[in-house]
Write a structure and sequence with these properties.
Length: 290
């Protein structure tokens, strides 16, 4: 998830309070996590992960039976490599429903499924090196933060003893009993210091505050509104359109994910395009930046 403000490592002690992820990205993370969880349950009781000794001895992948190390059985001449490529194409077709792509090891043309085939194990030396990189003796992992997270299903979960800077993109929803994507996370321990207990997660903005009256006074002369009566439903207030476009830009959501408080996303998109075409949008953003 991306923080509402960027925090370079070591350059600031400020911590994020609100993290927001576009709903489309949260749903994608959710679908991946659910597919992986389903595959784990399917494999329950099956030890598909090779020990390093078996991998180093040339044992094939326990999930698909295809080679991991050594010379391919079909040979390395031009005809053999062509047969391997054809076999890979058939393998990809058989695993098209997995929708996770394939991987292969260096110096080995045989492909494996990202979802079905476990990655080869690390050697003892690689494990030690990775452990030193991730957990150096001087590193203190801070797990002091408490977050309230809103999920794609609209349910809210509380995560205690978590990192103050990061929240995992998916969480097990206790009400749905399935893995869901996280669309918003609020640090309630930090909010409580300011007198907000964090129970009303909807009252917190997603990294964006609406234009103040003073800010609107700077730019309202730039936009032109139609005068006189018109047929059909009332026009959406131009200030709301500007707020919607700024919200969309600063939170990196799609127009379809625009909150209902801004009205119809189609109207906001159409009128924003009009502002862009007339160069008014450039003037608005330049004025606000100044």
């Amino acid at each position: 998830m991306s923080a509402s403000q960027q925090i370079p490592d070591g350059s600031s002690t400020a911590l994020p309070r609100v993290l927001h992820t576009p709903r489309s990205r949260a749903l994608l993370s959710e679908s991946w996590a659910q597919a992986e969880e389903a595959k784990r349950r399917e494999r329950a009781g099956d030890d598909l992960q090779l020990p390093y000794e078996a991998y180093a001895a040339g044992e094939p992948c326990r999930a698909c039976g295809r080679a991991l190390l050594g010379e391919p059985a079909l040979g390395t001449d031009e005809e053999g490599l062509a047969l391997i490529d054809a076999d890979n194409a058939q393998f990809r077709a058989e695993h098209a429903a997995c929708r996770m792509g394939v991987w292969r090891l260096e110096n080995n043309r045989v492909e494996h499924c990202h979802l079905c085939c476990p990655f080869p194990p690390l050697s003892p030396a690689q494990r030690d090196e990775l452990r030193q990189l991730l957990y150096p003796p001087s590193l203190h992992i801070d797990r002091s933060a408490t977050w309230r997270v809103k999920l794609t299903c609209q349910h809210v979960e509380t995560l205690a003893a978590h990192s103050p800077r990061y929240v995992e993109p998916t969480v097990q929803c206790t009400e749905c009993a399935v893995i869901r994507g996280v669309v918003k996370a609020v640090r309630i321990d930090d909010q409580a210091k300011d007198g907000d207990d964090g129970r009303d997660i909807e009252s917190l903005q997603l990294g964006y505050q609406r234009l103040t009256d003073e800010q609107w006074s700077w730019i309202k002369h730039i936009v032109h509104t139609e005068e006189g009566p018109r047929r059909g439903r009332p026009r959406t207030d131009i200030r709301t359109i500007v707020d919607a476009a700024l919200f969309k830009t600063r939170t990196d959501i799609t127009w379809r994910e625009l909150p209902a408080e801004f009205g119809s996303w189609q109207t906001a998109l159409r009128r924003h395009n009009q502002l862009v075409a007339s160069s008014q949008w450039d003037e608005i953003t330049r004025t606000l930046a100044e």
